[in-house]
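Hi C.,

You asked whether I'd gotten around to modeling the 217-residue construct. I have! Everything is below, sequence then structure, no commentary in between.
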Amino acid sequence: MTDQNTPLRIDIVSDVMCPWCVIGYRQLAIALESRGVDHEIHWHPFELNPNMPATGQDMREHLVEKYGTTREQSDANQANMSARGEELGFAFRFEDGFRMHNTFKTHQLLHWAKTQDRMHDLKQALFAAHFTDGRNLSDDAVLVDIAAEIGLDPAEAAAVLVDQRFAAKVRQEQAFWAQQGISGVPAMVFDRQHLVTGAQGVDNYQNILGQLQDMRA
């Protein structure tokens, strides 16, 4: 067990298409702040829809095809997520025509951002770009713009997307987490050994963090 003087390592496996990843992370962030836990977060790639075409798909159509979700169920789920997001300071805007996108290139850009120590910032920017602003994350030019907006080099970002230099690395990391049994997101691993799945809520995260602090004492 890691001692209490070492920052708590939190590995988060997620996809920027995953609304519960936004909610779960923000719940965790509140819990971490309220408990004053020294921590470091490491984001890892997961594709909810690896076979989605590059052009993306209307969200309602996608949910019907994948889960058999009715329009009424979809509306209720979106209202629930929007309410939870509002409580956490995040705006979900599920308007008509809202689309899901293929995120393989997005994960490649995130991997590059990690080499610039900006992965966390880009992750948050991509969440907002998709869920709040409805921007097309299937479009390389949009991804480059988002990278530039947080201060990353747009020319280098464009080159990363064109030559896909990190494609193999992303696939390797996806395979690693799949081998660990991760089949859904968000999946959070604390101190490399305690797996917590789904968005647990602020109170539950506070309890989890308290248990981890006791174990480290």
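If it helps when you're writing up: The CA atoms of residues 109 and 115 lie 10 Å apart.

Thanks,
B.
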